[in-house]
Structures are given as structure tokens and as C-alpha cells.
Amino acid sequence: MYGIIIQAIIGGTIAGILCGVLGILMTRLKLNTIVFSSAHSALAGVALSLIIPLDQIILSTGFVLFTALILGPLSDALLLPLDQISMVLLSIYTALALIFVYLAPGGVTSSEVLAKVFWGSVFAVNIQYVILLFGLLAVLLLYLSFSWTKLKAILYDRRLAEAEGINTKPYVYSLILLTGITIVFVLKIVGGLLVYAILFNPATAASKLAHNIEKRIVLSAFFGVISVLLGILLSLCFNLPVGACIALASAIVMLIARILPR
Amino acid sequence: MDKVKSFAGDIRDSRIALYMENVSTLYAGEKKPSIFNISLKVRYGDFLLLTGPNGAGKTTLIETALGLLKIISGRVLLFGYHIPEEKYKALHFVSYVPQDFMKSPLEPYTVKDVVAMGLASRKEPFEKLSREERKKVKEVLDIVGVGELINKPIGKLSGGQQQRVIIARALVRDPLLLFLDEPFSSLDPEGREYMSDLFSEINKHGTTIVMVSHDKNYIPHRCNRMVEMMNGKIVRES
Question: Considering CB atoms only, which of A81, A156, A212 is closest to B29?
Fold first, then answer.
């Protein structure tokens, strides 16, 4: 039992850092709706893993990659902005997830089925999962070190950065991809319906308190970790779904931060 | 083609800074072109004033030249580079002062950060600003008159101060071609006078300038051409 809790704490800490950092970056780029559609595509992937014999990470990664690939061409073909296309996809993926859960062996009455898809579980955290999360964090930190000078300009004003000769697409698309993959992994702990709470609540909290972008990223990561750990603690103490506890903890952190003077 | 040596390498064509031939442009999500069959030639060293009423297509023309909009017909070349195919080569030589530069008070960037970003496109991965570049950031802020605000958050500045900062960002790049979109819009009369002289001085030293303005009271004295637009078309040239 202690082993599982320690793994959950380590995994939760890394997940909190990942979500805190990516939440700030995606918010700055005004890509929140794309995160919503990615989260729901991952949710549909996990739900599909209930009815076909493939690993949930493979399926949800497939859904996230598919979403990342079709968003741009769909937006061009239908002459609609990305955020509107994202909202359309979000509703489609939610519908698919519900259908897959409905068709799952054992049906929707199975608490295990619901936990796997909707609210996550600390018992999903094992050593391989922690290693994968750590690898993802290493990739994110490498990406930030590699691209920070240009990325900072893109985060300030993407259009102006493009006008000054920075090809912004590879930077933005790789961030969307990294966020999508992070969602796939974090979804195991938090569940599919609440994953964006841990992406955006710490970012909103940090936005109130930090005056520069670097400090804002660090503070958001810190709030992400606090939210996840507090959520796990609440879940274990009161035997409640961990995803819901993490989402509530992140909302509490956000509210406290917003009340505090800048 | 002639070659000109500059801070950012060689350019392909040193005689024509901007060449547009029968260009029509479309904004994303729209079906009707915003500018129609525009043909324009801006020679190296020109100071061109682009004028006309709101909605005439002045900003669209600049954004088309910068490769920010979808060109549905015609040809655009910046220093001989085809836009949009080769825009990232061409844009190293270009600076842009946009019309919508205002940031909210919560913006997490200082004045220094914003100006330094002007040099970001020329940086290699992992590369940071050199000491000389940091010095240059301070120098251009002094030139535009906001040197004492270098460490202030950009969003806490007034509109006029923010406009000066965004002009400093354009100048820190030592551009061969400078696009200015309503660069006096937030400045007081004294500031307009000062900036007008500054742009003339920059042009005198060889920078080509294309300036959008609907206010003909502040035309920099070096301005040697005027193009008037209306309803997405060029209606007069002088």
C-alpha cells in the first residue's frame, strides 16, 4: 500500500509540474479550446480501450495525434477558426466516449469502468508509468531550453513574431502535441472529464501572482504539484474519486491565489 | 541580381524592397478578397506613405507583404524573395510596427523583454542575447525616449509609451525595410513630431519605410511617395 502511495506521490508531482507548465503556455497561446478537444479525444480513446483489446495509452495517443493532425486541415477546408472546430470535435469525442462506455462489457454500472474513463485512480500509477512521466518532463524541459528565446516572443504576440521571421507553427504544434501526450498520461490519475482543471487552474492562479513569464511558469508548476498532492491526500482520507479531488484542490488553490494581493 | 551585405546576411535584390503584382488577398474565414489586384513597387531607400480611409486595405496590404495573409492571386516579392514561400528568409531584413500593440496591465513581460524579442528570430537554439545586444536594447529605448522605463512591466505603461516601446523593438533589428502601421496613433503632438523626425533620420541612413497613416498632418519630411487606397484598391499614386 505504501509503495503505491509513494509512486502516486512521485507520479502526481511530475504530472503537476507538466500540467502547470503546459497550462501557462497553452493559455498564453489562447489554445484552451484545443486542449479541451485533445482531452476529450483522449477520453474517447480510453473509453474505446474498454471494448477493444488494446492498451488505453496507445488508443488515446492515437486519438490525440489524429486530432492534432486534422484540426488545421479541417479549419482550412471549412473556413472556420480553430477554436470552433475544436468545440465541434469536443462534442463528437464526448458522444463517442459515452457510446463506448455504454457498449463496454460489464456496462456503465461497473464502478471500475467509470473510474478508468471519467475520474482516474491512484492505483493506475506504477513504476513504468512514473518513468514515462519523468521522460515526458525531460522532453518538455529540453524543448523549453531549446526554444525559449523564440518561444518567449511567440507567447508575447504570435502574429508579431511571425512578422519578424519566426516560423511559429513548429513551436506551437509541438506544444499542442506535448500537451496532448501529457493529457493521455495524466488522464490515468485525473480521469478524462477533469483533466483540464489541472491544466488551467494552476495557470490561472499563477497569472495573478507572478509578474514575469518565467516566474509565472515556475509558480504554475508549483501550484500544479500542490493541487495534485492535495487531491491525492483528500482522495485517500475520504475515499473519494481522485480526479474529482484533484480538480477541487486545484480550484481551491486558484481561488486562494486570486484572493491574495498581487 | 545585386547583393547588399547586411547584418543578417545577403539579400537577393537590393533595388526593389517590395514588389507586388496584381495581388489579391483573403482573410482566414472570409470569401471576399480584402485587397484586389494591387500592383506596387517600393524601391530601396523609398519612404512611402500609404493613406486612405478606415477599411481601405492599408493594413491588409502590409500584412500581405509580410506573408501573414493568404494570397489568392498575383505575386509578392520582398528583396527578391517570394512571399509566402521564402518569407522567413526575407523577414530577417524587415521590421513591423503593428497597429494593435496595447497590452493589459497583467502582461508578464517587461519593456526590456519586449524589445529584446525583436532579436529572437536571429537566435539559434539554446542561444541567449549577448552583452552587446542587451546594450543595444537600452540604446534604442533611449532613442525613442523611454529608456528610464526599461524594467517596467509593459502593461503598466500608457498607450503612447507602449507605442514607443514597440517602435524600439522594430529599430533594435536594424531593418532594411520598416513597415509602420499608424505609428503616431497613441502619441501626443510632441511625440509625433519627434517620431516623425526619427523616421526621417532612419530613412536617411538607408532604411526603406512604408508607413500607414490617415493623418496627413504628420508626414515625415523624407517621405517621397504617397499611395492612396480605397475599398481594397490603389486609387492614387504621387
Answer: A81
